[in-house]
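Fold this complex.
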Amino acid sequence: MTPQVTINIDGANIKAARGSSVLDAALEHGTCIPHLCRVPYIESIGACRLCIVEHVVNGWSKVTTSCTLLVQEGMVILSNTEKIRKLRRNVAELLVAEAPNSRAIQDIAVRCGVKEVRYPFRNSDCVLCGRCVQLCPGTFGVKAIGFVGRGKDRRVESPFDIRSELCNECGRCIDFCPMTVVPCDGPMKTGEEYLCRNCESKMDSAEEQGICISCDLGEGFQCERHYSNF
Amino acid sequence: MTKTKTIKSLEALRKKLLKDRKKIQSTLIMCGGTGCQASHCQEVVDAVKNELFEQGLAKSVCVRTTGCHGFCEQGPLMVIEPGNIFYCHISPDDAHEIVTKTIREGEVVEHLLYTDPVSGKQVQTELEIPFYRAQERHLLAQNRLVDPCSIEDYIAIGGYSALVKTLFEIAPESVVREIKDSGLRGRGGGGFPTGRKWAACREAPGDEKYVICNADEGDPGAYMDRCVLEGNPHLVIEGMMIGAWAIGARQGYVYVRNEYPLAVKNTRVAIQQAREFGLLGDNILGSSFSFDIDIARGGGAFVCGESTALMSSLEGKVGEPRPKDLHTVVDGLWHKPTTLNNVETWANVPSIILNGSSWFASKGSKGSKGTKILALTGHIKNTGLVEVAMGTTINTVVFDIGGGGSNGNSIKAVQTGGPSGGCLPADKFDLPVDFDELAKAGSMVGSGGMVVMGEETCMVDVAKYFLTFLQDESCGKCVPCRMGIDRMLEIVTDITEGNGTPQQISLLEELGSTVSETALCGLGKTAANPVLSTLRYFREEYEKHISEKKCPAGVCQALITYTIDPEKCTCCGICKRACPHKAIIGKKKQVHAINLDLCQKCGICRSECEFDAIQVK
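Structure:
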């Protein structure tokens, strides 16, 4: 059996396998920390910054992502403080303003407590969470897709913009993409961008942050919490 | 070539070099930094050498092309020793006069002397120049003493004696303690105590460790590292060797951006020479210490100045930062313990070892020790590289060294620390250049860029400039940095175009603090500083842009109109001819006016008008 360590998340002492991340430990224990870019069993890249927590060391708290933070004996983590909720809400607001038509992103935004979006909507097809790039098995360990460009030119692309022979058509990139979940009323029209009010992610759950609703979305999005609710 | 296999042979070489040097009567020290090379100093050097040869002085007079002296604005410049005579703006035609008059007859060529713009007086020697006088030049002063491509020069002035002392007299733990006691803090921007970094790396488990010199300087307008690496590469190499001995590394890397070709060349030559002299390689000077350095050239991404992104780039991967939950001193290059320091930090190490930690700690302020090189630019009389003791006030730097605003204009603010730093208003100029004090005021020392801004600068426009820079340079990996900077820029652009709303100011503040709290790396964490600091000190400018739709400084194009003052207009017609859009109407002897429908607000008419008749509102 893997050696265990005890860590404290929001006041609860929980046991976790050495070498696992704080996010994994929290999810296993049932503490829901919102996350997007993290893919189970693959080393996290810490890109979406939604799973931020406060890591308390000697009375000082440091904001860091729980997916990249490995568990250590006696670690103290605060995942649901006022400060964290506010930061998480602001990050989720940025995400949903970028892709207001994605149910997965909407769901995350609502769970993070976003009630209004203060930025003009953009209708992006990709939020660069990087799940597809992380998951792509490619051929002989060489990925068929990767990130190209820097800053606002960053995009996911196959080498030289042509379909790569390394792609073995497994379709995982599509399965795990938060944008491929069918949007509520079909694709939005330009000039009519709005935060969808019809889908289940806008339900009362906005009042109870961090509590999962067993949404269809979870299944499409391969959300672990979706399965753990059954 | 003598190989210095032991301390004895190194000391013998030093003695021989010093003896040879006594034969030289005078030395012409010519600045050969990138700034002076751009103003054709090489042609001057060739002309002077030719002239010396023709007059039969080639053997007794030495011409030394050195690294940057700091006063780049006055280049090409030359100092003649003995006498410390300072000549500036030299052209190849002056070579004859310099050699005949100054070298042969000991007279001064008056038209090459420097005129102090403040007092209007000519100054004969370098020491008398106010720009130099108010500085405490420790690192920069060494640049003048050596030809960067000559290891002999460096050895002659006592180079590599700190290495000898380290290898044979001090144990590695004591080296770390010495650096800790000196209070040296990282010069690249963060200001992390160097001694603590070394101690952590030394204690980190693992046999294989690395040292890296970060010369990927990218801040707009800053070139301190370039100057040190170009001018005195052996100093940096010696510092790295001492660090490697202290932490137990066998391999070092200099990560230098490819846009610094002279720095790359000089460092490459220096490493090659050190290898030939046996100062790099196996069993250095007969000790058990083996160490080598390689150069890695950066492709020019600003983010690669961040330690983890630099290491990714060095490993041959995309230069993107990694999460730093385990610090790089434990999990760095190729997941091995790695000590990464800035060029200036490494360059400070040999003198700390030679002179002791208390010597270093005696300079500077309470929390920040030693000297710091600053790149002084902007709306100021004297621009160039400035080295001052930490704790010197901004007032001293801007007014005593910089000579105050150019064209007699008053100074509004100073931007310290590049895109990661902040803007400080003139009433904060009594603050010292100190890591902690500047951070408290919402800015930072950073790598040492100091951009002085006059009254004609719009602070909202400054924030917009830095956001545009950061938007381009952000790697785009994490959400807060990629989208946050983009949205901040969107809001600031709205404000400068007159579409801003009062709610946007509080949104900017909230977004700024979110980005700085949640971003993955140092670039993102400090990206909001230009916005937050201008909002803190120049809030009323933002408010005027929003409520009155006016740009008080007359910079933001959408909010200004050009008009001609009929009382000042002399009907000369120059503006009419200069206007590329044919927007100026008026005939001879008839006061001109601007057709606002056609005016593109390019400002050409204003710069052409000799009577100050064109106004911006």
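The first strand of chain B starts at residue 26 and ends at 31.
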